[in-house]
Amino acid sequence: MGKAESRRRHDVPARLVAETKRKGGLAPVDLERFWADQEAAAKNPFGKSIPQCPLGVLLSGECVYAELGIEEDFWRYDHDEDWRLGLNKAYNDKAEKIVDRRLLSEKRGDPTRRYPGIKGLHDVFEARNEWHAGSWWLRQCVRTDDDLKALLDRVEGRLDNGLRGFLLPPNWDEERARLMALGVTPPLYRHQRGPVTFAMSIYGVESVIFLIADKPDLATRWSQLILRAMLDIARITDEEAGHTPATAPHGFSFADDNCCMLTPDMYELFAYPILKGVWARYSPNPGDGRYQHSDSAMAHILPVLAKLDLNGTNFGPTVTVSEIREHLPNAVIHGQLAPYTLMRNEGEKIVAEFLRDFEQARARRGLVFATAGSINNGSLLTSMRLIMSAIQHFGRYDQ
Q1: CA distance 166 to 236
Q2: pLDDT in tens, 27-67
Q3: DSSP labels, 170-193
Q4: 346: how many CB neighbours lie within 10 A of its CB?
Q5: Which pTM was predicted?
Q6: Which residues, at least 6 apart from 152, have a Cβ–Cβ distance to it below 8 Å?
Q7: Inter-residue contact 355 to 338 (CB < 8 Å)
Q8: What is the b/e burial string over 1-22, where b = at least 16 CB atoms within 10 angstroms of the residue's CB?
Q9: How far apart are CA 67 and CA 70, in angstroms?
Q10: In 256-390, where do the E strands start and end?
Q11: Gap between the Cα atoms of 380 and 26, Å rounded
């Protein structure tokens, strides 16, 4: 790239933001064409004939507060359906004018078609989820290595006795028969808080690090029991939905923010066997989903993850598209826009981060431009439209 071309590309963010301001805050974009191209691009981000980089920044319910000018209340949004649907409608009315899409569900749930809740992996390991600071957090339940040994003994006994009776509520069989007759099948277990985050939630960050370093045999035992419990939960939920090993749907995903806390060797000892074992059963084929979200600075464990051939990633904003592609050639990369850049609606930075990521992905494709982590309240519809404009003007593969 020559100096003149480099200067032009450097000026792109400022020029696009300036044009957006001249147009009353709405970035220039042919909405009808964008969504037609988005539909084609999203089908296969690696496709050789796709017209543009697919958009992954589809704003979610976390964003209603700033957009509508109301105080955050995540608990009420989750638990007061009338309130949530009212907010969603107001938000969608605004979204339709700005991005030509109604982004949030306005459909009322039917509690008569909902299965009673079943226990999860954290219940097997005697941990408890608590609502705190607008989200669910897994509470620490182990304080010492001796506590951990005793817990693992209890978990092992629980697994030896069979988990079905432990996982399913007393009214399960009755409700299952009723709902299956209506054609409603039970949900499957295909996603899990990743093993490092799970372990550090119930034992503490430093304690897990010291455990792996000082007592690898105990850490290995814990890892093996996590894998065994996960496979048992998945098998039981498959069976309750009427699946056999031959008919069970493939694909499994993890969300493991804390994986960045371990060295590659530590990660390979503790977490790698769990992912490998789960994906060996549920994602054995090249096209089966092997996805990990880890919105942290975890580039140092990419060589370990490469052994698992991930095909879907959402990593932290300090991890570059080029780094991910070097180690994971088959992965669709969901990223790498910093969530706080979007949350602060920093227009020039948003466009600059798109240009950076698109340039790194262009030769081999496979990028879905999304936040490198969660989308947070504060992220505005006008910023989503700005991204759409940047994609349409500077993120096309046919130019």
Answers
A1: 11
A2: 999 999 999 999 999 999 999 999 999 999 999 999 999 99
A3: TTHHHHHHHHHHTT-PPPP--EEE
A4: 17
A5: 0.93
A6: 218, 221, 222, 225
A7: no
A8: eeeeeeeeeeebbeebbeebee
A9: 8
A10: 290-294, 312-315, 332-337, 367-371
A11: 11
